[in-house]
Amino acid sequence: MNLFGLEFKANFGKMIAWAIVLAILIGLLLAFYPLMLEENTKSIFDSFSNGLSPSAKAAFGLEEEVDYTNMPQYIAFIYQYLFVLIMMFAMQLGASSLSKEQQTGNIEYIYSNPITRSEIINEKLFANILVYLIFLVILAGVTFGISIVFQPVDIRKQEILIALGKIFLGLLCSGLVFLAIGYFFSAMMKSSSGADGLSVLFVFLLVVLVIVAKVTGYGMIAGYTVFEAFKPIHMLKGNLNFIGMGISLGIFILGLLLCYVIYGSKELKY
Fold it and tell me: pLDDT of 234-253, one tens digit each?
């Protein structure tokens, strides 16, 4: 049974839809870049940013010093907001993976084949990782293509490629963490109804908690979260939080281990 292929096909269309939406957002945000090169626009934005209190800057994600006229830094800046949407997609891939078969009735067909529960998880996991990788490649390609259109004469294509490599490495690592969390939830759920909504709500609540931690003076704790550990501007500048990355790795491993344990002992009704 080619469960890998079935899972890949099931999520490929969803991935394309997400990629189209994000590609449009990327295009709109990058189209604003030439305005940042104008002194008037930049001064207005700088005045707005400098007029905010430290707490307000933290809430808007403006606490990091960014040169908006530098294209790689501008790309990293816009991706810190797209980051949240990308993590929602990654978690959705995992959250609906294992539970949807019971809802659709396909679990009976799956178990009519010689396959173990660990093999089910493995094939679905590898299929969804491939889907997520293709998703990131599409976004990187779109970003690079549009960036070339607005590329300043003093920036080489190689610089943009290197910047994208650093940014998307962080998106890959953080996405795998949320994919593992999604698999953990999927192993516990009896059906995939509401899995997408749960993923959006979970990521949104984490973002709110990070903002609250920053605003209330617990920014150091917030810095250990996956959002801050793999923040695009941090990845670009090399300001790496290895403790935060280690915690994220631990969450990834724990999420998958719990998934195998829970799903392996779960009573499947079909």
Answer: 999 988 899 999 999 999 99
CA distance 27 to 23: 6
Give the count of beta carbons closer than 10 Å to the beta carbon of residue 261.
12
Q: Which residues contact 48 (CB under 8 A, 6 or more apart)?
A: none
CA–CA gap between residue 64 and residue 232 (Å, rounded): 11
Number of H helices, E strands in the chain: 14, 0
46-69 residue pLDDT tens: 777 777 777 767 766 777 777 888
Give the C-alpha distances (Å, rounded to integers) separating 230 from 166, 168, 177, 214, 240.
10, 10, 11, 16, 8
Residue pointed to by tokens 């801050």: 228
Residue 61, Ramachandran bin (φ over 0: left; ψ between -120 and 50: alpha; else beta): left
- The string of pLDDT tens digits covering residues 3-23 is 888 889 989 999 999 999 999
Q: Which residue has the tokens 């002194």?
A: 39
Count Cα neighbours of 40 within 13 Å in the Cβ-side half-sphere: 1
pLDDT at 112: 64
Read off the pTM: 0.90
Nearest CA-CA partner of 205 in 87, 95, 61, 100: 87
Distance CA(79)–CA(94), nearest Å, equals 22
Distance CA 100, CA 189 (A): 9
Contact 227, 210 (CB under 8 A): yes
